[in-house]
Design goal:
The chain is mainly α. It is built from ten helices and three strands, in the order βααβαααβααααα. It has a three-stranded mixed sheet with strand order 2-1-3. The longest helix is centred in the middle third of the chain and has 34 residues.
Length: about 325
Amino acid sequence: MAPMNNLTVDFFLLGFQNDQHLTYFFFCFLLVIYCGTICGNLLIITLVSTSKNLHTPMYFFISQLSISDIILTTDIVPNTFQILLNNGGSITVNGCITQFYFFSASGVFECFLLTVMSYDRYVAICNPLRYTSTMTSDRCAIMAAMCWMLSFSVALMDCITISMLTFCGPNIIDHFFCDLGPLLEGACSSTYAIELEVFVMCFPVLFIPLTVIIITYINIIVTIVRFQSNISRHKAFSTCSAHLTVVSIFYFTILSVYLFPKGEETLNFSKLLSLLYTVFTPLINPIIYSLRNKDIKISLQKMIKKCANLTTI
């Protein structure tokens, strides 16, 4: 088959290929999830930026995670709606690479940010007397900015390499978004460079941050066990439980999607895991961080009272 121009060729995303009635139900379900995700994460960002009691490093990083979740779900879900309603949908190569760019950047950013958040918890529990001087607002802003810069840079390198490929078919992608594996299946030129690049970048982007998180939590657990007061232990564990839950969900889905053996029998399972990571996790994150968080509940109550007072004026 003759190579096709990368600027004009379209990919066709198959999506889930469900029964029509099930498709409409799935569309409504995803719409509710998407609206909940946007509202929940925007609420977190608003509360952290307007409430003085939430002007701490931990909540600042949570607000950055909410921004990343909004980018991720907005990059994936709206196009998924079109695919569901039309039982599939076309997307240009440039559009596909752009979608992968923001998907990749948000994933890499979360790897780095969760590592920074684990360091924040490490300093707060293992070196509480130095916490204020170590986790200053300027330093937190610099660390967040570095996470954003590195994530978009890594994603850009991958996308530049992908854009150099020649795509000649098959132009059918059996997925609901442009992930790396399905995208490379449509390339007729060698994919060795991008595969090598992704393999090499897995170490600084995925495995080193995960190793750092594991080491910090080993130190945190050892420190907490040494506490003599049960109240202090419970308080310390409660400050880490939300972050540890988010880390577990994030890395479980990421490693499951990209390390499980590929094949027709695992394709639908891979789609479900990708759906969990791209759609449900951005909804779960604000719930996990706010469900048992007294500071966020207090700030939310104050905001509601403030809005109620404004409406009565």
